[in-house]
Design brief:
Blueprint (H helix, E strand, L loop, with lengths): L6 E2 L8 H9 L3 E6 L4 E4 L1 H7 L3 H4 L4 H5 L15 H8 L3 E9 L5 E13 L2 E11 L1 H37 L11 H13 L6 E4 L6 H10 L8 E5 L5 H9 E2 L11 E2 L1 H4 L4 E5 L6 H13 L1 E3 L6 E3 L3 E6 L3 H6 L5 H7 L2 E4 L10 H16 L5 E2 L1 H8 L6 H15 L4 E2 L6 H8 L5 H15 L10 H5 L3 H10 L5
Parallel strand pairs: 1-5, 7-14, 7-15, 8-11, 11-14, 16-17
Antiparallel strand pairs: 2-3, 2-6, 4-5, 5-6, 9-10, 12-13
Helix pairs in contact: 14-16, 17-18
Length: about 475
């Protein structure tokens, strides 16, 4: 294509033969215009691209034939046309983003230039040279789409890697459900019944009973097992941060949001989302969660773009949600949305016959973690463990075994050093369950100098949230 600002014009209807041969040989379309904007020359390439024959256009206004509308179909006034502006101000122009219209009414993207033509220093017309850039535009669009997909995949992988690292660092203990008691057999039966459906499951049970383990088994046995299972502890985040954690946020959405971040709902797309301690959600967060469950869509914090997801929701709580509904602390409509298939995980005191199997499995798992080989557990020690009420359930048992293994100088576990509550429950058979639990909590509080939170606090020793411990202390009327 020429970028010359002056082209020798020979006449309106007779180019020199050699010029005509040159223009006819070009693969780019060429139009010659007089000062009125009418066509005086059209080469074969222009005919082929537009579908108009030279004889049909010579002497006609080209803008009305090829440039009458924008790409969206809206009117393109002639006075805005770069070609006709060159006719009036003699300034050459190049245009990258525009369309020409064919005779059949279709359009195609073009790159074109308009160059003024002079005869003896007098402007006599314009020559326009154009080419069809459909293939180039298609390639550019394909590359942009591919780049966007790569960027989205990169963001997803980065988010999932960060999440999976956190998950792996937090996993402890056995990976299966141990025991053969009637409550455990019933629990396993319920898991198998609902696992391969997309129904929402609400897992209820005391702290330490293994609610997350039940959720993982539900996911492992479902048709979503090859997709991610993403967990969120709703009690671990403030109300302000929880929304960002669940739904993600855009860069600059709030102070500290230095980059776009995908939320747990987005990471769990096509998989399972496990919301632990769901009773801790604020009423505002409950409202937003209800909408996501109903519509399977949401917006990131700071964005108006709606994101569609396909997730299987599993929730868990140690609270009585029905009671919290009556107290106005939990939305009734959300409760009924979650309570499609309730599963209750039995406390350890209701399945004491499973303790020998649990001890065996936990010892095997912790031996790998601690690098110790334990070959024997004393029968007397097992009997003592079976007589304890276990307010902290399997989690407390796991912690007790781990401490015993650390202290053991041989390959035997004797369980001679038991919590004060164990000795109390063994010595006084008339203690109620609440009294035994209270005695155990008081013993731990005394050992921690009545410090509740913090790494050396009673809550950490009992392996439960500080808020839960305070709730239990209030219920059991424990005060210093």
């Amino acid at each position: 294509m020429t970028d010359s600002t002056t082209t020798k014009y020979i006449g309106t209807d007779h180019f020199l033969p050699e010029n005509t041969l040159l223009l006819n040989a070009m693969t780019e379309g060429v139009y010659g215009f007089d000062l009125a904007g009418n066509a005086v020359f059209i080469n074969p390439a222009a005919e082929q691209m537009t579908g108009w024959k030279s004889a049909e256009l010579i002497g006609r206004n080209i803008h009305d034939c090829h440039h009458h509308s924008h790409a969206d179909g809206s009117h393109y006034p002639q006075h805005d046309c770069p070609i006709y502006r060159t006719l009036h101000d003699a300034i050459p122009r190049q245009v990258n983003e525009d369309v020409f219209w064919r005779k059949d009414g279709s359009s195609f993207p073009v790159y074109y230039s308009s160059t003024p033509v002079y005869d003896q220093q007098q402007l006599v017309g314009v020559i326009a040279i154009f080419r069809d850039v459909s293939m180039q535009k298609h390639t550019e669009q394909s590359l942009r789409q591919a780049l966007a997909q790569v960027q989205a995949l990169s963001e997803r992988l980065a988010s999932e890697n960060q999440y999976l690292l956190t998950e792996l660092q937090g996993q402890q203990g056995a990976s299966g459900i141990s025991g053969n008691s009637q409550p455990i057999n019933q629990l396993i039966q319920q898991i198998h019944l609902v696992a391969n459906t997309d129904s929402t499951v609400l897992i209820c049970g005391e702290n330490g009973t293994g609610k997350e383990l039940v959720a993982r088994n539900l996911h492992r046995l479902s048709h979503r097992k090859d997709q991610p299972m993403v967990s969120v502890n709703c009690a671990a985040f403030s109300t302000a941060l929880l929304e960002s954690e669940l739904f993600g946020h855009e860069k600059g959405a709030f102070t500290g949001a230095t980059a776009r971040r995908k939320g747990r709902f987005e990471l769990a797309n096509n998989g399972t989302l496990f919301l632990d301690e769901i009773a801790e959600l604020s009423l505002s967060a409950q409202s937003k969660l209800l909408r996501v469950i109903q519509e399977q869509s949401f917006e990131r914090v700071g964005s108006s773009e709606t994101i569609k997801v396909n997730i299987r929701l599993v929730a868990a709580t140690h609270h009585d949600l029905a009671a919290r509904v009556e107290q106005g602390l939990f939305r009734m409509d959300l409760y009924y949305r979650l309570n499609v298939f309730p599963i209750t995980v039995p406390p350890l005191r209701d399945r004491r016959e499973d303790i020998p199997q649990l001890v065996s499995d936990l010892v095997a798992s912790l031996s790998k973690k601690l690098g110790k080989k334990i070959t024997k557990v004393s029968a007397k020690g097992l009997k003592n463990l079976q007589q304890y009420t276990w307010p902290g359930n399997v989690r407390e048992l796991q912690n007790l075994i781990e401490r015993e293994m650390i202290l053991s100088q041989s390959g035997h576990l004797l369980f001679n050093t038991l919590p004060v509550a164990v000795a109390t429950s063994l010595a006084t058979s008339t203690l109620t369950m609440a009294q035994a639990e209270a005695a155990h909590i008081i013993a731990v509080l005394n050992a921690s100098h009545w410090r509740i939170s913090g790494p050396s606090g009673a809550a950490a020793m009992l392996d439960m949230p500080a808020s839960t411990l305070r709730s239990r202390m209030k219920k059991l009327a424990i005060s210093r």
